C-alpha cells in the first residue's frame, strides 16, 4: 500500500555511502551492506542524521545499476582514505515522493506508480539518458523501518524521493 504522492522541497544533505555497480539480481545483497556504513560511522564517533537509503545514480535495468548504500549526516565529512566509503551531498530541490508500506519486493510497483503519477502531472525528472543507462540527479529509496524492530517485511515503510528537474 502506498500513500498519495506529493511534491516536497528538500534541503541539501551530506551523506556517506558505499557505491556499487550491480545487476538487478545482485541488488538485494548490495542493500545488506548498510551495516558497513554504520560501522564506519561508529569507528569515527559519528551518528546518522536519518534513515539509511539506496541512491540510484545510473539505471540500466537490463545490465547494471550504479547504486549507493548510504546514510545522511548533519555535516559533511572527508572520507578520503576510507576504503570503499565515499562522502557526498544530496542535492537540494523539489522531489516527487511517496511513502510505501509493504515488502521491499513491492517497490517496483510503487516506483512505477510514482513515475506514472509524475508523468500525469507533467513533471520531469532530474535525469538524463546515456549509453550506460539513465543518470539520475537524486533517486532515493529511504528505509524508514528498522528491521531489528520490525522483522515482518510486509510492514516495512519506505519513502521514495526522486528529484525533479529545475
Structural notes for this entry:
This protein has about 170 residues and is α+β, with helices and mostly antiparallel strands. It has a single domain, classed as Regulatory factor, effector binding domain (Multidrug-efflux Transporter 1 Regulator Bmrr, Chain A). The protein contains three helices and ten strands, in the order ββααββββαββββ. The protein has helices at about 25-30, 35-45, 105-120, and strands at about 5-10, 15-20, 55-60, 65-70, 85-90, 95-100, 125-130, 135, 140-145, 155-165. The model has no long low-confidence stretch (mean pLDDT about 95).
Subunit arrangement of the protein? single chain
> Helix proportion of residues, in percent?
10-25%
Please give the domain count: 1
Largest sheet: 10 strands, antiparallel
CATH architecture: Alpha-Beta Barrel
Number of helices: 3
The first-level CATH class name: Alpha Beta
Features:
globular; Multidrug-efflux Transporter 1 Regulator Bmrr, Chain A; alpha+beta; 39% strand; 166 residues
Brief summary:
This protein is an alpha+beta fold and 166 residues long. It has helices at 27-31, 34-43, 107-120, and strands at residues 6-10, 13-22, 53-59, 65-72, 85-90, 93-101, 127-130, 133-136, 139-143, 157-163. It has one domain (6-163): Alpha-Beta Barrel (Multidrug-efflux Transporter 1 Regulator Bmrr, Chain A).
Amino acid at each position: 500500500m502506498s500513500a498519495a504522492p506529493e511534491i516536497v522541497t528538500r534541503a541539501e544533505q551530506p551523506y556517506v555511502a558505499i557505491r556499487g555497480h550491480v545487476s538487478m539480481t545482485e541488488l538485494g545483497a548490495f542493500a545488506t551492506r548498510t551495516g558497513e556504513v554504520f560501522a564506519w560511522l561508529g569507528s569515527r564517533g559519528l551518528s546518522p542524521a536519518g534513515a539509511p537509503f539506496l541512491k540510484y545514480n545510473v539505471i540500466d535495468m537490463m545490465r547494471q545499476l550504479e547504486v549507493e548504500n548510504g546514510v545522511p549526516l548533519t555535516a559533511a565529512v572527508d572520507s578520503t582514505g576510507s576504503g570503499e566509503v565515499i562522502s557526498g551531498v544530496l542535492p537540494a530541490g523539489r522531489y516527487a515522493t511517496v511513502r510505501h508500506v509493504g515488502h521491499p519486493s513491492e517497490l517496483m510497483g510503487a516506483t512505477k506508480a510514482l513515475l506514472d503519477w509524475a508523468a500525469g502531472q507533467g513533471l520531469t525528472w532530474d535525469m538524463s539518458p546515456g549509453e550506460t543507462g539513465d543518470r539520475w540527479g537524486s533517486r532515493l529509496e529511504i528505509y524508514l523501518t528498522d528491521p531489528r524492530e520490525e522483522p515482518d517485511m510486509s510492514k516495512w515503510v519506505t519513502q521514495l524521493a526522486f528529484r525533479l528537474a529545475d
